Amino acid sequence: MGHGFDRRFVLGAGAAMLSAPAFGQGADPVVKTTAGQVRGRQAGGVLVFKGVPYGESTAGANRFMPPKPKAAWDGVRDCLAYGPTAPQMNVPTLRPGQTPGPRLPSPIGGGSPVPEPPVSEDCLVLNVWTPSTSGKRAVLFWMHGGGFSTGSGSSTWYDGTNIARKQDVVIVTINHRLNVLGYCDLSGLGGRFAHSGHVGMLDCVLALQWVRDNIARFGGDPDRVLIHGESGGGRKTSVMMGFTPAVGLFHRAVVQSGSQLRLDSQALAREKAARLLKALEIAPGEVDKLQNVPVADLVRAGARAAAGLGQWRPQVDGDYVPGHPFDPAAPQLSKHVPMMIGTNRTEQSVFLGGDPAMDNLTQEGLTKLAAAWVPPGRADETVALYRRLHPQKSLAELAYMITTDRSYFLDSTIQAARKADQGGAPAYYYAFYRQTPVQGGRYFTPHAMEIPYVFDTLANADRMVGPVTPEDQAFADQVSAAWANFAKTGRPSAPGLPSWPAYNSRTRPTMVLDLRSRIENDPRGAERKLMASFGSQQDRQSELPPPGQTGGDAPG
Q1: How many Å apart are CA 148 and CA 271, to the nearest integer?
Q2: 420-437 pLDDT tens trace
Q3: Is 106 an active-site residue?
Q4: Alpha carbons 541 and 269: distance in angstroms, whole number
Q5: Burial bucket for residue 318 (CB in 10 Å: 0-12, 13-18, 19+)
Q6: CA separation for the pair 346, 521 (Å, rounded)
Q7: Based on CB atoms within 10 Å of each CB, which residue in 164, 253, 348, 351 is the most buried?
Q8: What's the angle, vertex CA 189, arms to CA 188 and CA 190, rounded to 5?
Q9: 538 in the Ramachandran plot: left (φ > 0), alpha (ψ -120 to 50) or beta?
Q10: ω into residue 115 within 30 of 0, thus cis?
Q11: pLDDT at 91
């Protein structure tokens, strides 16, 4: 594609014929990759390879630079434990209308492996779960959540054991650069940093190239690769649909609660970079010094520099990102790629519901909260509509519904409609409604609730889903099958699910995923139309705010 980024490892003659040697029951599997041999482990009825390096360290002279494929090694490398996590800093942020104060335990908590992996700039690693090294199975390639700022592919929620074994697919999860290290646009300060604002996405591309060149030796099919992710992972998936270096590396896509319609303008991205240099007292002409700043100091300064401007994320540069991913239309680059898109019914409850004060929310408090989310003068109208449509709901649940519909839900329906209207590969839309019983059911159907069902990891996510009942396990089997079958065929389906029609912007057929799933046309249609009249929140979040004002941020 003429961008100078290494697109492919060069394989020697006959390399395509290489495969893992046979191994007996109980023997550790060994697979030859393009960089060298890796040893995994048999566990849970599948073969597991953790911490497989796909790129060189991104520290020092490689910081802010496109990733380099992992250099070859001799012998057999043990890949038995999760690899390093990308440097990150959790900066607590309040949602619009929230006030500081004590919070109840978040249902998203937990999921970290024990022991937790170290944090390092040498973080370009991936994990593979496969039923066998023979055969050609569809591949589900997962990009983790945490916005563009935090997270890792090592969460036990993302363990691929059950879905790989039951659905006969290959699972890949990855780590890659985040926050200021992954998305700082220094292109205006030096030619060699021309693509620094996209190196986090280029890491994902390099991992997909690794899949293309190696996954057949793990029993995968490089011509049936599904990319997906939740929250920030959905946003990365959205970006990949319009990311020039990623063309041809994937064949289906699923966006879970992370529809990224717009990205930063270059003016906004460069303002963040200018603030970073100022925070570190580095002159623009000495930008190379950024590669020697201690990583902890750099991440802390990055958090300060982005404050009030939204998180570090990719930018529209006219090259790698020719335009906004899904604004004003779906990207032509991926017109041939079928998509599945959806959200959970009360996404924002996971952020707002930890406040004990929500239990005693008043009508005045609900209106005040709504006013922080909708355009000036529209809060009363919004609350009145929701109270009329949902007279039996508590004020707290109405608050979560209003804020979710304003953010995740509206943007997902815009994205699905634009994909459908493109006239290429179809879009499929879901609404996840399964409620959690944890903490008395106070969170209803929160952000990330669907992940343990997609991965069939309910036992690892009790803080989110509660006790694993036979009914819930059957639902997890169904949801994970739908995702796996979408990876296999480009159409989502599962035993017991109704036939799932493609989305269109006229009747908006939607799979409502619950213990008894069903098809509904335009669910929450009146709410959607009201929110659509306000326009997407991302319309203002992608531009440099006027002097004296702060910008916003896409949720998740």
Answers
A1: 18
A2: 999 999 999 999 999 999
A3: no
A4: 12
A5: exposed
A6: 19
A7: 164
A8: 105
A9: alpha
A10: yes
A11: 64
CATH of domain 338-540: 3.40.50.1820
- Catalytic-residue membership of 336: no
For tokens 């550790």, name the residue: 28
Mean pLDDT for 406-418 is 98
Peptide bond into 328 cis (omega under 30): yes
Which one of the listed residues 447, 480, 517, 536 is annotated catalytic? Answer: 447
Question: Tokens 């290494």 correspond to what residue?
Answer: 6
Separation between Cα atoms, residue 427 and residue 420, nearest integer Å: 5
First to last CA, the chain: 32
CA distance 187 to 61: 16
Angle (deg, nearest 10), helices 295-306 and 266-279: 130
**338-540 and 37-306 share a CATH fold:** yes
Residue whose pair of structure tokens reads 């619950």 in the numeric block? 514
**Angle in degrees, CA 72, 197, 52, rounded to 5:** 25
Written as six digits, the tokens of 333 are 């680059």
Whether 9 contacts 209, CB under 8 Å: yes
Place of tokens 């630079």: 65
Residue 23: pLDDT over 80: no
Pairwise CA distance, residues 457 & 460, whole Å = 5
Supply the pLDDT for residue 554: 52
Q: Is 257 a catalytic residue?
A: no
Supply 364's token pair: 């005045």
Beta strand residue intervals within 263-349, DSSP E: 339-344
Distances (CA, A) of 60 to 54, 175, 287, 290, 459: 18, 19, 13, 9, 40
Q: Where are the alpha helices (DSSP H) in 425-524?
A: 451-454, 462-465, 470-489
pLDDT in tens, 486-507: 999 999 999 999 999 999 999 9
Better pLDDT: 314 or 542: 314
**Residue of 121, 230, 271, 347 marked catalytic:** 347
Q: Which of 231, 259, 407, 480 is catalytic?
A: 231
Measure the CA–CA gap between 459 and 444, rounded to whole angstroms. 19
- pLDDT band, very low/low/confident/very high, at 548 (cuts 50, 70, 90): low
What dihedral angle (degrees, nearest 10) is formed by the CA atoms of 160, 165, 169, 170?
40
Residue 511: CB atoms within 10 Å: 25
**83 vs 81: CA distance, rounded Å:** 6
Q: CB neighbours (10 Å) of residue 550?
A: 11
**Domains of the chain, residue spans:** 37-306, 338-540
The CATH H-level superfamily of 37-306 is Alpha/Beta hydrolase fold, catalytic domain (3.40.50.1820)
Question: Rounded distance, CA 502 to CA 491, Å?
Answer: 9
Query: CA separation (Å) from 142 to 34, 152, 312, 463?
Result: 21, 10, 20, 22
Assess whether pLDDT exceeds 80 at residue 331.
yes
